[in-house]
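Researcher: First entry.
Model:
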Amino acid sequence: MAAVTGLVGVALCAVFGLTLPDHAAKLLIDRGGLLYPFSVQNFMWVAFCIAAGELAARMRAASRELRQLRLGYLPEDPRTVLQADDLGPIYRRVREGGMAERCFLPRLISRCILQFQISASVEQCTTLMNATMDLMAHEIELRYAPLRYITWLIPSLGFIGTVTGIGHALAYAGEPGRYQEPTLLTEVTGRLAVSFDGTLVALVMAAILMFWQNIVETREELALNASGQYCLDHLINRIYVDKAGRPA
């Protein structure tokens, strides 16, 4: 995903460089810079496309998790009570669905059923489900670690571009005999404007990514919480154990 979206970012920079007028190119890609096409702005766009692609993938994953809740793995009739003989067919259906190792809900159901078949204890099933949900929440957090780094990296690149641009502008103004040129002020302020515009673009990119990331991460966390609630309501609280502690 990172390789593909990185190439998309490179292609986007190439399109900008070929089609944008000079004033827009200075704002977005610094086409007149000394290091172009290896400018800071181009690296920012590549990083932005990589992060956007990863966020799109995470959004699809969250939608897939929410769809699992509508597949009816467990009986949802409030009058239904699950006995030990009912768990085997449910387990097989979950495992045959192809998502038993990928999505939250099938993983929770299959682990809880296995735990109950081993221990015949609803309490141990509940403990296992809580531990599994904690691990899944940590798994979600780890998935967003690269995105958090990119969201931090883009403004950093913008500030690096600004500092570099200021240095180049001052070096240009300090060249011998340059102070006598009537266009010196216009040239220096133009270079400084490009540098500060790069920081502005970086901050806008970071704001967009942070907003999008919060939406997607919240959606995944809601999917996990809904999966745990579904498993608790329709599996843990439905299993019948007789007074002797044996599954019915």
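Researcher: Second entry.
Model:
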Amino acid sequence: MPVPFDDRGLAYGDGLFETVLVRDGRPSLWDYHLARLRRGCAALGIDAPDEAVLATLPAAAESGLSVLKVIVTRGSGGRGYQAPADPEPRLRWQLSAFEPRRERWQHGVAVRHCRLRLAEQPALAGIKHLNRLENVLARREWTSPDIAEGLLTSIGGHLIEATSMNVFWRRNGRWQTPCLERCGVAGTLRAALLERLGIDEVEFEPTALETVEGLCLGNSVQGLWPVTALESPSGEPLERWRISDDLRFFQQQAHALLGYPAGI
């Protein structure tokens, strides 16, 4: 069903989305996706969709792996930026066949720092709202297929995330991930790992990556990619890491949550 021209999600990014890995009609990390969607709706003041309706969507997938994308907007109406007094939220969804990048699980990836800096807006921190122009601009910074992702730093100087994945590293024997109280997307795989493993949420300057024992990226669709090489925004080599047994164990914990193979 087409989206009307006056839809506020189209006009202003006034809405939220979720991307869910679906295996044989069963969604992965579903409770975490619903919880983040509820948080996002509360933050934007949008009525959350009926969870009974949402629960029917993954079952429409064919056998094998799919990705369900759910978009919720405030709907139409209002005057300019002023929201309508009685909005009628709009729900749209799509299922697409999916195949993960298995070679990246096994061999790891190269990443680079991005020049773009993320704005800090605590009112939007953590939620997956539709206005992702910062990520779009950052992703335009490289075209080489040898670079899998770009690391994003906030305007305040803290490492936050990759353009479409969360960041994890091992330092002094502890797994850590960026604190996302000012900006960034709190991924559902990240949430599940925080709940199950002893991961510290910290403020971390990107230059401190030279002190870490291992680095990886993860999200609830692609799983977990080890990082083997880090470059500057201009492509100069900065750091290299081997894929340690500790990182493989961490990867296995992440993949168990998604139904991906434990042995790589």
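Model: Note on the second entry: The CA atoms of residues 48 and 91 lie 10 Å apart.
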